[in-house]
Amino acid sequence: MTTSATYVWNPSLGELTLYAYNLIGIRNTSLAQEHMEAARMASNMMLARWSNQGVNLWAVDLVTVPLVQGQSVYPVDGSTVMILDAYVGITNGGPEIDRIIMPVSRTEYASYPNKTQQGFTTVFWFDRLISPDRSTGSAGPSITLWPVPDGTSAQVLKYYRVRQLQDSEFSSGQTVEVPYLWMEAFAYGLAERLAQIWNPALIQTIKPLSDESYAIASQQNVEQANTYISPQIAGYYR
Predict the structure, then answer these.
(1) Using a CB cutoff of 8 Å and minimum separation of 24, what contacts does 106-114 make?
(2) Is 171 helix (H, G, I), strand (E, B) or coil?
(3) CB 79 within 8 A of CB 59
(4) pLDDT in tens, 105-117
């Protein structure tokens, strides 16, 4: 058996768009500039929805932020969709020791009477504002720590975040920021959105295929790890 022995297939947005139009009965020779403009908008709208629907594992990265004594608020990159896990690192002259910190809501943070209290940070509040806007005075998204770092117990903040997917563009044969396992879901999802504009009669046909492709891809988009649930039984042994 002779195979390619390669793993580099990664079609451009243009190629995926042609395929999506073919799926809804529009041939390549029929496409005009307005078809491509609609496809660019539709593809970015779909990526925005995917960012909302769940954690895209390929868009998770680790951010490291040096802590400053007495500083409670730290800016967060505007492309951040959500913060998954956060912890603080302690060195104190030896190997770094990490300790997890937990998220709290705006309401819980507001309930703390002394928001400038310094000590070892145990919780964080993620303020999900939009990117900085001088016209409105928005400072952009940020993470607030409490207790406020005291400069001795913890020196660095680390958190895993889900960032938004990169823009899809036609220029220079750009590809979309989607892994191999999601290519079919992208193509069928784009075809469904384009059918709404150019061939509404096919929506009932293409939508089930789009939903099925997304469901199959999302089933693989999870961490393969066990989950353990233990009851709180400490009270029985007091």
Answers:
(1) 109/144, 109/146, 112/146
(2) helix
(3) no
(4) 999 999 999 999 9
Q: Enumerate the β-bridge partners of residue 89.
A: 98, 156
Burial class (CB in 10 A: 0-12, 13-18, 19+), 112: middle
Helix (H) or strand (E) holding 23: helix 13-23
Contact 180, 36 (CB under 8 A): no
Contact between 204 and 43 under an 8 Å Cβ cutoff? The reply is no
State the DSSP string of 129-145. Answer: --S-BTTTTB---EEEE
d(CA 125, CA 164) in angstroms, rounded, equals: 20
Tokens of 91: 């060195």
Locus of tokens 């919780």: 123
Among 132, 160, 166, 162, smallest CA distance to 65 is for: 160
* Residue % of the chain over a pLDDT of 70: 93
Instruction: Tell the burial category of 201 from Cβ atoms under 10 Å away from its Cβ (0-12, 13-18, 19+).
Output: exposed
Q: Domains of the chain: which residue ranges?
A: 13-55+168-219, 57-163
What is the rounded CA–CA span in Å between residue 20 and residue 42? 11
Give the residue among 61, 73, 177, 67 at the shortest CA–CA distance from 127.
Answer: 73
Rounded CA separation 177/201 (Å): 30
Query: How far is Cα 146 from Cα 124, in angstroms, rounded to an integer?
Result: 6
| pLDDT for position 137 | 58
Nearest to 84 by CA among 161, 182, 154: 161
